[in-house]
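User: Run a structure prediction on this.
Assistant: Running it now.
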Amino acid sequence: MDFFSQQWATYRAVVSHDLMEHRAVAQATANALEGWLAQRSAAAPPPAMVDLGCGDLAQLAPVLKRLPLGNYTGLDLTAAVLPLAETALGPMPYPCAWQEGNLLAWSQSEGPPVDILHSAFAIHHLSDAEKTTFLQGARQRIAADGLLIWADVFREPGETLEAYQQRYTVRIRQGWAAITPEQQSQVIEHLSSFDIPAERGAIETLAQAAGWQWQWAWQGQHRAEALAVLTPA
């Protein structure tokens, strides 16, 4: 089994056993999207949506299938997942595009205003400085009445990155018996090497400075996973 297949098998095991509360995240995402659509003017054109770090859409596809979108773009750094996402979504009544790319680079690119931006468990791979750059760029790309849904892992207020990593490692070792010890080690290695979750208080301040209003729409039971809804200030 190649590296991608190994990593993807571990990721799918984590999702299928709901170890990071993906089901609750998907429901909270659906609630946020449907609430925003219900408040939108009936005369407004169908919204354009860009999904930054779309993955295989295993959780979000059922939500997308019932949304009255104008178009959808799924972007992911890993090209191999895009055909999986396309298959999960299936034929849709609106145009869908699939793009290999970096969400930070996307935020700095030119393009028409986007009504809905969505990102799940991807932005935490950016450094704190890159998160600021992303928020500033995304603010320029979002429509005036648009919506940014950010599902991710976050640090507690005042919690250091090292403390977060230690407590998440304990959570994996003690509570993730549904996956193998080897898979647990893969997740721990990933979070130790690549994850930089934002500290909750700091990221709200940074978002406000970048021109966003921040609202927590859902918070998980482990003081890590959460979903924020951002709208242009």
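The first strand starts at residue 48 and ends at 52.
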